[in-house]
């Protein structure tokens, strides 16, 4: 730092002979210096001159530039049109760590596959892979190649089909990959003939289905857990008809139903109906004991 009235303040380069910094000061004060031009600086400190390719993730994308430095001073910075592919790959991985795997292209099916694999890993552990963010980034070489090495910028990451890439982590070597649809089916067929998507995002798999489509259902669908019992799949509330479905040994329905619906399903009047009947002094019909 120079004094405010110093004639050296506008000089682009200085050869500093004496400078000091008190213990409480942020920067040093220049006591003695001489004006120097860039050529003189290059000649005096030629051993500190370096040129490098600087490729990193900055402001949401890959930045590639060629930098010439004299020590810590940047002499020139130019865009790099053909950066080293290894440096670009490291920059893209840095971007994925900072901003998350959402930079990839995730379809509904891809999210579903990841949730199914997470469910199987939680229930059965090996050979089903851990698909947490940390583990997927750690195993990028196994499931994001060759797309990652071909990518050059953020937009290229957005073209990587995450669902297709995740399939590379399936336990193909042990043959267990062929059992994915058996152990964690993507869809389950209900008595109406519809094939309903199973949701694996929560602690327990959920089959969100209209009550009418379950008429004739004799057993609650299950996802197999080998020797660890069954994980029941249960219908969600049909909000348009004010019904709730409970995950029990027999599926229980509460709300307006009108009459018993199907085998394994019992109907009971809702709270409002029971209160009205109690006020009228009438006998309650169809309620659980």
UniProtKB/TrEMBL annotation:
Region spans: Disordered: 257-289
InterPro entries in alphabetical order: RNA_helicase_ATP-dep_HrpB_C
This protein's UniProt keywords: ATP-binding, Helicase, Hydrolase, Nucleotide-binding
Pfam families for the chain: HrpB_C
Domain (ATP-dependent RNA helicase HrpB C-terminal) ranges: 143-225
GO terms for MF: helicase activity; hydrolase activity
Skewed-composition ranges (Basic residues): 272-289
Keyword Phosphoprotein: no
Name of this chain's protein: ATP-dependent RNA helicase
